[in-house]
Amino acid sequence: MASLVSKQCVNFVKGFEGFYSKPYYDCVGVKTLGYGMTGSEIAGIDYVTEEQASQMLENLLNNKYAQPIKDDLDSRGVKLTQNQFDALVSMAYNIGTGGLLGSTLYRNICNGVRDVDTITADFEMWDKGGGKVISGLLRRRKAEAQMFFENGNEIKEDEKDMKNIVCHNGGIADAHSSYFISCFLDCPIIDLSNGQNIDFDRIENVYFVGGGEFPSIKNGKVIKGQTRYDTCIEVLKNIGKLK
């Protein structure tokens, strides 16, 4: 059976959830394991490998979250792009399918609302844990809103003369670090591992994040560290200096 969610969605969720091989309690006291798995999903499990957690996550995203959302959208005759659907699945994984389907965000989307400010604000309504705004949740909501309005990682012809873009060579950690810059600069993210041909000369600032080979261009800046953790630290150290 074909996956309902894209690989980008799976990696996106991985990046924000982080991997834990043993159970821990999150910021609001919920027992969590693997990539953000909780409750009955981890009943009787005290340890998982990254490979096991990845498979569990993909199964959960497809069967517990994506399928009910797809069924509801189909019943309403609502068609979404893959990125739009992925953004909703990521949010449902975080707030629950019931929370998503009963939200103002979902109602507006089903009613055809596509205004960027309105939909982004609807995403950002879900930025609290235990009644308090959680900065990590707000970053995630902003990133999900951006994903919703992305067009399959492609830069449209009429958007090519832009100020900033962020590029990485794939991988969970570098994609996650790239989202920090993207949210700060409010700019697109490009996964170069997709083999997309980009006219960098028509972009004012290009930020390359993480490992791998990047084009040598005068308007490019590489931000990376010796390890994935170091890359994230370098991003956070440099983010206030970006234009």
What's the CATH class label of the largest domain?
A: Mainly Alpha
What would CATH call the architecture of the largest domain? Orthogonal Bundle
Mean pLDDT: 87
The biggest sheet, with number of strands, parallel, antiparallel or mixed sense and barrel status, is: 4 strands, parallel
The tally of strands reads: 9
* Uncertain residue ranges: 152-161
Strand fraction equals 15-25%
Order of helical and strand elements: HEEEHHHHHEEHEHEEEH
Q: Taking Cα atoms only, what radius of gyration do you get, to the nearest Å?
A: 18 Å
| Major β-sheet strand ordering | 7-6-8-9
Helix content: 40-55%
- End-to-end Cα distance, whole Å, is 45 Å
> How many structural domains can be distinguished in the coordinates?
2
Number of helices: 9
CATH topology descriptor of the largest domain: Lysozyme
Structural class: alpha/beta
Protein name: Lysozyme
Family: Belongs to the glycosyl hydrolase 24 family.
GO biological process, one term: cell wall macromolecule catabolic process
GO molecular function: lysozyme activity
Would you mind describing this structure in some detail?
With 243 residues, the protein is of the alpha/beta class. It has 2 domains: 143 residues, Lysozyme (Orthogonal Bundle), CATH 1.10.530; 85 residues, Rossmann fold, CATH 3.40.50.12090. Helix content is 47%, strand content 15%. It is built from 9 helices and 9 strands. Strands 7-6-8-9 form a 4-stranded parallel β-sheet. β1 and β2 form a beta hairpin. α1 packs parallel to α3, α3 runs antiparallel to α7 and α6 runs antiparallel to α7. The chain starts with 6 loop residues before the first helix and ends in a 5-residue tail after the last helix. About 4% of the residues have low confidence.
